[in-house]
């Protein structure tokens, strides 16, 4: 169950990701993106990519870990839909999707 603080954290992460103050990075795990808070906490966004889940349709999860990788918070987009929005923002940022689109448009124009 998500608390009000969990929801507030997700809202701040969305805002800071949009403004570019948070830079998400892709990991070696497909569909996983991470951000570190001054080395004290790590946020991880992941998509459930089970065997029978089509790409892009799995549940999205935000995990907040402390420096020793102890799980502090886990929230899914099935509980807080904004997790899906945050996941998509982080994915586009980490994979430079907008730059790729700009390059393609520039090439085709």
Question: Which labels suit this protein?
Answer:
109 residues, alpha+beta, five-stranded antiparallel β-sheet, 5 strands, globular
The total of beta strands comes to 5
Biggest beta sheet summary:
5 strands, antiparallel
Low-confidence parts, pLDDT < 50 over ≥5 residues?
Answer: none
- The Cα radius of gyration reads 15 Å
Percentage of helical residues?
25-40%
Q: Given the helix and strand composition, which structural class is it?
A: alpha+beta
Q: What sequence of helices (H) and strands (E) makes up the elements?
A: HEEEEEHH
- Lateral strand order in the biggest sheet: 1-2-3-4-5
What is the helix tally?
3
Overall mean pLDDT: 91
How widely separated are the two ends? 49 Å
Please report which band the strand proportion falls in: under 5%, 5-15%, 15-25%, 25-35%, 35-45% or over 45%: 25-35%
Q: Please tell me the total number of domains.
A: 1
The coarse silhouette is globular
Structural account:
The chain has 109 residues and is α+β, with helices and mostly antiparallel strands. It has one domain. Helix content is 38%, strand content 26%. It is built from 3 helices and 5 strands. Strands 1-2-3-4-5 form a 5-stranded antiparallel β-sheet, with helices on one face. Strand 4 and strand 5 form a beta hairpin. Helix 1 packs parallel to helix 2.
